Amino acid sequence: AYTREPQPVRWSPDGAWIAYRDGSQLRLVSKDGKQKRVVSERKWETYGWSKDSTALYGIAVDQQRHHILARIDVAAARETKIADYGLEGGVAEFGYLLGDFPYRGFSLNPDGKSFLTSVYRAKSQIYLLRDFNRPLRLIDRWLPQQRQ
Fold this sequence. Notes:
There is one protein chain. By secondary structure, this protein is mainly beta. The protein contains 1 helix and 10 strands. The protein has one helix at residues 91-97; strands spanning 9-11, 17-22, 25-30, 36-40, 43-49, 55-61, 66-73, 78-87, 103-108, 115-119. The strands form 3 sheets. Strands 1-2-3-4 form a 4-stranded antiparallel β-sheet, with no helix packed on it. It starts with 8 loop residues before the first strand and ends in a 29-residue tail after the last strand.
């Protein structure tokens, strides 16, 4: 099925598996394409492999729309929540609307205790404009503006 959302793809360090997101499922496919498995029914925003290729770590969205850091034991397809980062917010939807990843990249520290990713941020501002549509008179160019 075609989707407008970009999908990250990650090779396991041992080269045996490719992890990819298919809609709201996280799947694995063997390097020869003969074996395919669903390891999670949850929508994963970003993920990466452990150094020994036995687990996937990443950020997923749970049923309450919270972003969570979690681990998947690949052999058992068992998920373990590590941390809860709170509500998803509009950043992910805005990133997808622009055809971009809300989370970009995933790098697990070799000690397995920390990871690095970048988060898409959007910033906007609201301006209040006064007298922008006032007719300009010739005399207004030479007289200083009066402050109210």
